[in-house]
Amino acid sequence: MSNVKHPKCAMRSLAAQAKARLNQNTYSNSGAPKNISPQQKEIYLKLCALKRNGEEVVNPISQLADKELLNSLPHDMRQRYIIQLSADYVSVRNMLDNDTKQG
Fold first, then answer.
1. pLDDT bracket for residue 13 (50, 70, 90)
2. How many whole angstroms separate alpha carbon 12 and alpha carbon 3?
3. Fewer CB within 10 Å, N side or C side of the chain?
4. 10 Å Cβ neighbour count for 78?
5. Residue 71 burial class via C-beta count within 10 angstroms: exposed 0-12, middle 13-18, buried 19 and up
6. Separation of CA 84 from chain center
7. What's the predicted TM-score (pTM) here?
8. In whole angstroms, what separates CA 47 from the centre of its chain?
């Protein structure tokens, strides 16, 4: 069904922008590897931002954890969150180290 009555609606302009990106192949790529989980992608983007700003990761748990989520979790869930965050950080860090060695 066409949108004849509202040719300047928000959805029409968003669709036109998406079509233009598709035609020009100018999607903004985050640079994150495609075979990682959403949590790892978030960590990857944070680490890349820290690296761009010239900051060093001294305490990855405190720098990468969601403080509000961490404070709202019960003790056992907090421990699980920290362990998962640590595992994701190590795997992302290994990916970044391998990328810098290869590139």
1. confident
2. 8
3. N
4. 15
5. exposed
6. 16
7. 0.67
8. 10
